[in-house]
Structure formats: structure tokens, C-alpha cells
Amino acid sequence: MHPKQSGKPAAPLLFLVCAVIIGLWAALPAAAVENAGASPPVLVVDPGHGGLDGGATAADGSLESAINLAIALRVRALARLFGVQVRLTRDGEELDYPPEAETVHAKKVWDQKRRVALIRQTEGAMLLSIHQNKYPDARPRGSQVLYARTPDSAAWAELTHANLIAALCKDNRRVAAPISEDIYLMREIDCPGILVECGFLSNPQEAQKLKSPGYQLELALVLTASYLQFLSTQFQGDTG
Ligand SMILES: [Zn+2]
Predict the structure, then answer these.
(1) What is the Å distance from ligand 1's center to 34 Cα?
(2) How do 193-200 and 125-133 pair as beta strands?
(3) How far is the CA of 228 from the centre of ligand 1 (A)?
(4) 116: containing domain
(5) Percent with pLDDT over 70 in the chain
(6) Is residue 24 part of a domain?
(7) Total structural domains within the chain
């Protein structure tokens, strides 16, 4: 439980994170952005699952795919406000499967390969994959950030995980960790990539929060601020 936050949105948090975002973005020197390399960074936001694959299901039937998309759309809106280039791997719940993908398995494989191709074709891509967790026990809650085995992924994940804990769940004892090699999307990318498990749909209280537009906005603010903060550290490194 979060006694200090129970029952109402953490409005001061929103102001604080907005201030951090604005401060970080203002601190990014334009010259550093231009000199950062041939390809400016592009935030590729991946709302996990979608189409035939709803992902995890909450006790009330809410689908992970819809919550992932709601948070991803908020990240895109916020990031664009600050001039960040953003691509989504999907922007709706429906996916336009090709006729040759006839089985559910073939459709899922096609979708995963499509996402990997989109990410690999995006010069300067930085992948932010958004998911929700589920566990047989209803008690676990809180977020966790997992990272690909590509350069810069661990540092971005640790920063994002620390910010999520500080802003939204101070008693979270998890740590950022490398993701399993079994996760095709994260294994096949060649750019920095993190996968954020925003919370547990198996925890009824947390599932209600994850479905609420206010909490989705708070998560999106922290994820966007963390991305900008990470970019600012990268550019300081390049120009220092
Ligand atoms: Zn998922």
C-alpha cells in the first residue's frame, strides 16, 4: 500500500516530472544533438502484444495489450511535445495480418518479425517496449525494467527503474535486470532496448491503477523523462 498516495492522483508528482522534463530538454545543447552522430535518436515505443495476442489478463478481464497501448500513446504524445522523434510498433489494437499467416502461431510470428524489422530499419532507434506483469500469487506489485544485451541498454534501464521507484513505488525492492534470451524481440534488436513491466495485473489494486488514465499518464511521464535524462547523459559523454 501507499498511504501517502492512497485514493488520489499524485498531482505534485506530475508537476515535478514536467519540471524535470522541461529542465532536461532545455539543458540539451542543440549542437550536441547535431553532433551526436549521423542519425538522431528515434524513440521506438513498442506496446507489447496486440491483435490476436491480448497478453496477460486481469481478474476483471482487462487485457494487457490495451493498457500497454494506452501508456504508449501517452509516451508518444509527451515525447513529441519535447521534440523527440517517435515511432510506434502499433497504434491500435487491430493488426493487419497478411493472408499467408493462417494460424494463430503464424500470425504471432509475423507480428514479432514485423516489429523487429521496423526497429532495425529505424536509424538511431532506441526501443522502449511496454508490458504488464502477471504472477500466480496476487501479492506482487510494482514495476521492473529489463534490458537487452546491447550497448547502453543496462544504463538506460537502471536509470528508468530508479526513476519509477522514486516516483511511483518507493518500497519496490526489484532491480533492473537483463532480459531472458527467450524474448525474441529483445534478442533480435541491435539498438539500445528496454522492456518495462509497469506493474502486475495479477494484483487487483495495481490492476485498477494500471487501467486508470491518471496513472497511465504518470507512468508515461516517468518513462519520457527518463528517456530525456538518459539522452542528456549520453550527449554529455559525447561532448565532454
Ligand atoms: Zn506482455
Answers:
(1) 35
(2) parallel
(3) 24
(4) 41-239
(5) 82
(6) no
(7) 1
